[in-house]
Design goal:
By secondary structure, the protein is mainly β. The chain is 0% helix and 67% strand. 1% of the residues are buried. It comes from Runella salmonicolor.
Length: 75
Amino acid sequence: MYNEKVTLRYYLEKGQKARLRFSNLTGSVITQKTLVGEGGWQQDQTDLSHQPNGAYLLRFEADKRTITRKFMIVK
């Protein structure tokens, strides 16, 4: 059994906005969402069960920082 959701744990100040984007390696955006801080550590889950096996990118942008991580979906 595999986990069909990607869990992201992040820290945002209250009212601070961030953008979360998932894409494939060719740059096509799969899904994206805006996150709003509640003041502290938070968690977000994104269901990617409909995506085929392969490599993907997670991009988290908040203020002047950007974090990008590559991950694999293997079913």
